[in-house]
Amino acid sequence: MAAPTATVPTSEVLREWGRIGCIGFGGPPAHVALLRELCVEEREWIDARHFEDANAACGLLPGPASTQLAIFLAHHVAGARGALVGGLAFILPGLVMILALSALYLGGSPPEWMRGLAAGAGAAVVAVVVQAGVGFGRAALAGREGAQRIRAFAYALIAGAVTIVAGAWVVLALLGCGLFELLLRRSGWANHAASVGLPAIVLATTSVAALPDLVWTAFKVGALSYGGGFVIIPLMQADAVTNGWMTEAQFAGAVAFGQLTPGPVVQTVAVVGYAAAGIGGALLAAFVAFAPSFLIILIGGERFERVRADRNARAFLDGAGPAAVGAIFGAAVPLLEGVTEPWQLGVLAAAAIALFAGRIGTIPVLLSACAAGALAALAGGAVPA
């Protein structure tokens, strides 16, 4: 990986990364495309091969990959100060928007249309999550044959089951599957195994206080999530509902808001933080969730190419990646519990048809679901609490 050029003024980084943070609707694919357009095509700050290597290396790391790519590129063009400025400029616009939505939605008496809007989006987001699982699943199975494919299915089934039964501990499934695959490769058995099983470990814990629990939830999101932004859903869901911070319906709405706002999907953790402890909890959750991304780039950015080529890292992700796909599918089950009204089922069915048959993009589908929900609420339709 090329060394940082550190020739671009931080004021320019602030402007350009802030612009992407404001218009980056559509999640990681949109972020990567906008960053490539800026850094490779328009300004030629980094060549295409180095960009693709950085993007691939970020995909091997835990946490929000597109955020880490944005921080890495800012570090490449403007050094450590540029990384801090660029990363914050990329994150903060969407964070401000989602905090405003949180205050409106989770306030003491949210307007009826707002509750309906969230309920409609929450219904559609179930289809969005399933679509994401299908897409990630195809990518995870690409190039795998025989025993590797069987193990990938096993890892996905394990993580999916843990997500449904004990979602708060899905991180154990992700780590366990990754470590199991790593040990299997290093032992030399991987080429001969016909299939592999891994017992799901289910633990229970007692909440001590809201803030420690919130910090742990945010830390899992920022430092222990593998496989893209949608993996944060099972990592947060059980914590948010079990601890009494949010209902299933409120959490589904929060996930939808994370999709509808620009910037990284990980900002959904701020909604959970707001529900747990107000604005202070939202800011704390966001800080804990994003801090690992900054530390990873500032400390190890120049070792990215070695990480990408490392066999151990690759083996671990070959186990954790399929497990993350299973966790995404598993998250759709508890999200469905927030869909309780007949009109929501209609919105969910329409969203599924639009996404899978009509191949319409996520943002138009969610915006349509928001409009349908708001209209249903204003027309007197029941809205889940």
Structure description:
The structure is a single chain. The chain folds into two domains: 10-90, no CATH class; 116-378, no CATH class. The protein is mainly α and 385 residues long. The chain is globular and about 60 Å long. It has 15 helices and no strands. 74% of the residues lie in helices and 0% in strands. The model is unreliable at 192-208 (pLDDT under 50). This is Chromate efflux transporter. The chain crosses the membrane at residues 83-105, 117-141, 153-183, 189-211, 218-236, 271-301, 313-336, 342-358. It is a multi-pass membrane protein.
Low-confidence parts, pLDDT < 50 over ≥5 residues?
A: 192-208
Number of strands: 0
Roughly what fraction of the amino acids lie in strands?
under 5%
Strand count, sense and barrel status of the largest sheet are:
none
Mean pLDDT: 84
Tally of distinct domains? 2
What share of the residues lie within helices? over 70%
- N- to C-terminal separation? 50 Å
Counting H and I runs of at least 4 residues, what is the number of helices? 15
Structural category = mainly alpha
Q: What gyration radius follows from the Cα positions, in whole Å?
A: 20 Å
What is the H/E order? HHHHHHHHHHHHHHH
The global form is: globular
